[in-house]
Amino acid sequence: MRSALIIANSQYDDDVLRQITAPAKDAESLARVLADPLISGFDVKTVLDKPSHFVSREIETFFAERNRDDLLLLYFSGHGVKDEDGQLYLATADTKHKLLRSTALWANFINDVMRQSRSRCQILLLDCCYSGAFARGMTAKDTAYVGTKEHFEGRGRIVLTASDSMQYAFEGDRVEGAGAGSVFNRNIVRGLETGEADLNGDGLISMDELYNYVYDRVSAETPSQLPRKWALEGEGELIIARNPRGSPPKLAAVELQVLIPKRTILLGGLQFCFIPGATFPMGSDEGYPNQRPRHPVRVSAFFLASTPVTNAQFSEFVRQTRYATDAETEGSALCLRDGEWRITAGANWRRPVGCTSTIDDKPHHPVVQVTWNDTVVYCKWLSGTSGFTLDLPTEAQWEYAAAGPDGHLWAFGSMSVARPGTRARREKVRGCKQSPGSEVAGVLETRT
Predict the structure, then answer these.
(1) How much is the pTM?
(2) What domains lie within the chain, and their CATH numbers?
(3) What is the CB-side half-sphere exposure of residue 11 using CA atoms within 13 A?
(4) Which whole number is the average pLDDT over 434-440?
């Protein structure tokens, strides 16, 4: 799942905090781009000019009850304030500059909420107008360095900021200087919306590409403002969007057992990993007759889902489409009983082994009792909701990926003799109800 929470503050009760107009417009433009299914496909919620207690609850709710592979993006636009001890706070509508602990968002609170979330794919965008934030007479008792990294550390987290300096401009009782946060936001939106941030032209926009694009444009427009980026113990290269003007990247959705991801895309709760193109030896000289002879096959680069579709994910598809699987329509499915496959009345993806079974306590287990027809419909649905083109893998794609980077004969290694039960497990997968001549593999795992 891809979710974004956009928080913007342009109006303040405290006269010391300058009223700014950019955040509301910034929030609207960023929300539009992030929610566009042809670009990023985020589920977006916007919070504008709300008090600190309301914003705190929204942030904590946003990061709570998440899955490990959920991609969560938090964006803040407004004033950033440091207290006398150097602690960083984000100002909200009711923030009082003399009561920061009780009326502003403490950076440590946000950090703790993000750290405690199960999600390990998090993006934090701080578009804070540090310039012109205080009226004359206030004294900055710390250095001009904000130290964003020290305030927002965590695993699997990428932090982008408009700058990492705090600037003050005072003149009489009037606050001088305009915030430059909109320059940061404007270039993020432009890079995503036009596809200009796709620097390598592969049809996808990574966070590294987006940062490099924004850095070059912001520093050219306002040399005194230098955006910053930190990648904190993340795995792989995180893809935030596709190039809306490029060719749709081809995705094959299958379970991958052996892969060290170098690039990832998160769609519908599935993490797709980049598989580089290569020529590999396909088939086997010692396997079934239809696997012979072992021969070289060229596979172009593609993306592959690293986990099978779960019951919860398939349930969401059914909820939105009211789709009935082949097994539900026919009223039965094949089940393995006493070592034999038998047609069992009432068996389907909701009741894998018959009427008395259930998946209520198995939301994160792979969905089973689905056919090739069912998987094709699921792929079309996910394609429509994500803006990417998804399909089942070809036999070559699956064999290449399952062999892993070392080209093992089996997913569990290169043992010369198959482990006991290997044939039974293979027949178990192939025995699931399917269309004549089809192979059940790919988007939906078929193990019980």
Answers:
(1) 0.55
(2) 2-235 (3.40.50.1460), 252-430 (3.90.1580.10)
(3) 6
(4) 32
